[in-house]
Structure formats: C-alpha cells, structure tokens
Amino acid sequence: MVTASRIAPAAAAAAQQLFVIDPITRLNPAKDSSVALMQAAQRAGLPVWVATLADLIAAEHQGAAAAGGHGAWVLATPVSLAERADGPWYQLGERQLMPMEQFSHVWMRKDPPVDEAYLYATHLLELAERQGVRVLNRPASLRAWNEKLSALRWSHLMAATLVSSRVERLAAFAADQGQVVLKPLGGRAGQGVVFASASTPGLRALLELVTGQESLPVMAQAFLPGVNAGDKRILLVDGEPLGAVNRRPAGDDFRSNLAVGGSPEATALTATELSICAELAPALRAEGLFFVGIDVIDGRLSEINVTSPTGIREVERLGGIPLADLTIERLLAG
User: What's the pTM value of the predicted model, to 2 decimals?
Assistant: First the structure.
C-alpha cells in the first residue's frame, strides 16, 4: 500500500487539490469530513485550495479558454490547516483567479440541499472535466444519483419501498406494511423523516402534508425495528469499504442520524454488509463515485450518499482507522 508520507514530492506538488465547500468558517474541524480530507491531503504534501459554489466561473480569460467554448475558472483561496480542533485551525492565503485545469482533483463537498445553485455548479464542474480535471464525485452522477432514489437500483437489497405522490397509494402501503417511515426525497441528515402506521390519527392529512397536496413524491419504506440497534454508515472509497460507524438512535427517536442526536459507536461489517458493498462497487466505479457513504439498517440498504458523505471523524476516532489518509492514498495511487 502506498502511504501518504511516501508520495513523491514532485508528484505531490503537481497534484493541487481544490475543495468546493460551504464557507470554511462554518465547518467544525472536530466533526467535518471535508476538513479531515483536506488535512490528509496536506499531510501528503498536496497544496490545498478552497472555494464556494459562487466562486465557480465559466469564461474566456485572455484568450485562454478551452478550444470550442468557455473554460472553467475559479476564484480559489489557498489554505493551510492546523492539526487541531481548538483555536485557529486554518489560515487563508491570497484569493486568486485560476483556471480549473491547474488542479489535478476538484472535490465537490458542498453540503445539500441539491438546489438550483448546486445543480448549476455541477454543470460548471463538467467544463473542468472536459479540461482533464478529475472531479470527485463526477458531476453527472451527482445529478443522477438522488440519495434516496438511487438505492432503488438495488431494490432487492432494500426493505419494502414505495415512491409516490398519491395519498391513496401511500395509505394503502402503510396499511399493508403496518409501520412505515416517510422520507422526503430531497432531505438530509434525517430531517423531515416521519414515522407512521396504518392506525396513525390523521394519516391522510399527514400524507397530504408530506407530499405537498400530492405535488411531490415521497419515499415510504417498511419500518425496520432493527434500527433500535443502529444504522450503519459505511464509507466506500473507489468501491471498497474502508470503514464504518454504527449510529444508535437517542431516547425514543427512531432516527439515528448524528445530526439529530444519534450516538456513534465502533462496529465491524457483517458478511451481508460486505456483500452489499461488493454488489454496489462496479456501478460506483463506473459512474465516477469515488467517495460514497451507504446506510444499512438490519442488513437492508437504506440510502446511497454521494453529495458530501460524512462519518470520517467517527470512523477514525472509534475504529482507529486513518480513513482520510487512506482515501488520499487511493486517489493518488489510482
């Protein structure tokens, strides 16, 4: 295995990394996976730059645009990151207008929602791809892989699932399954996820609410009681599972997401979970999804997170796995 410390200095100097993130002032270095990846890149000797969605530009600049069209540019800022979570943990350099082709890799790590600004940014990043830059994850796949719907490619690995806008169909599904979980397709971190049953008072009113009066589809899934034992976040790098963390719900909340109070704990992968990863791996590699987090509950695939997967800090702290460093090693060795 190639380690970050053994990367040739010349190769490292050439492999500039651009991270497209939320404003760096909003990131919590003790918990944020993007910070973990940036620090790992810096440990490997790679120059690290940051930008936001608003800093992406398509333009001709002094006649240096890509042949046949506009070139991809960015107002980027070099950053130096301290290996500490308290006190000043980053130092920004001078902001510069740079052609994207100067970066070997661009990490699209902007958190959801996947709104208009996010979608337009993926189109701008495709210009960089055409100039030979590797974008992680691939912009077209970020658009195509809704984090709820993409799991339906492997519906046989999931709990019973229905996606619909129609109250009647959703109510019938709830009656058939007994207990269900309703998920907004654009949700994240457990936000907006609702538990319901066939006997829930005002079920139809609830279904009207979550579908926006039948104007938006929602995902309904059979409730898995095994979630009380936890919801596993498994992090796959180039299709291979490198680490996982179990997230256990807090109190009487069925949601296990860390953002809504779930507790992380160390875990190992079962044979079933390894089999799920192996089945997904070829498609993830083929579609340029280099860094992915899948969620598995009681041996059932729940979601495939491709936009800005989290969990690195928890895997490193609880499992003793240097996951961020391993990710950078895989990237540079690939």
Answer: 0.90
CA distance 252 to 110: 31
**246 three-class SS:** strand
- 97-127: buried (b, 16+ CB within 10 Å) or exposed (e) per residue? ebbbbbbbbbbbbbbeebeeebeebbebbbb
Q: Mean per-residue pLDDT for 55-66? A: 70
* Encoded tokens for 50: 């940051």
pLDDT reading at 20 higher than 90: yes
Among the residue ranges 9-13, 169-173, 329-333, the one predicted with the least confidence is 9-13
Give residues with Cβ within 8 angstroms of 236, minimum separation 6: 242, 277, 280, 281, 284, 291, 292, 293, 294
Which residues participate in catalysis according to the annotation?
148, 183, 233, 247, 255, 295, 303, 305
Express each pLDDT in 133-148 by its tens digit. 999 999 999 999 999 9
- Nearest of 329, 324, 331, 333 to residue 5 by alpha carbon: 329
HEC string of 102-151 equals HCCEEEECCCCCCCHHHHHHHHHHHHHHHCCCEEECCHHHHHHCCCCHHH
Answer for the pair 270, 241: CB distance below 8 angstroms, yes or no.
no
Distance of CA 181 to the CA centre of its chain: 22
- How far, in Å, CA of 286 to CA of 72, rounded? 24
Query: CB within 8 A of 150, min separation 6: which ones?
Result: 144, 304, 306
CA-nearest of 260, 265, 258 to 315 is 265
Contact of 319 with 165, CB cutoff 8 Å: no
Cα–Cα distance list, 171 to 37, 185, 214 (Å): 43, 18, 13
* Distances, alpha carbon 297 to alpha carbons 47, 69, 175, 205, in Å: 38, 47, 22, 28
**The residue type at 251:** G
Sign of the dihedral through C-alpha 160, 163, 169, 171: positive
Grouping H, G, I as helix, E, B as strand and the rest as coil, residue 233 is: strand
HSE value, Cβ hemisphere, 13 Å, CA-based, for 23: 2
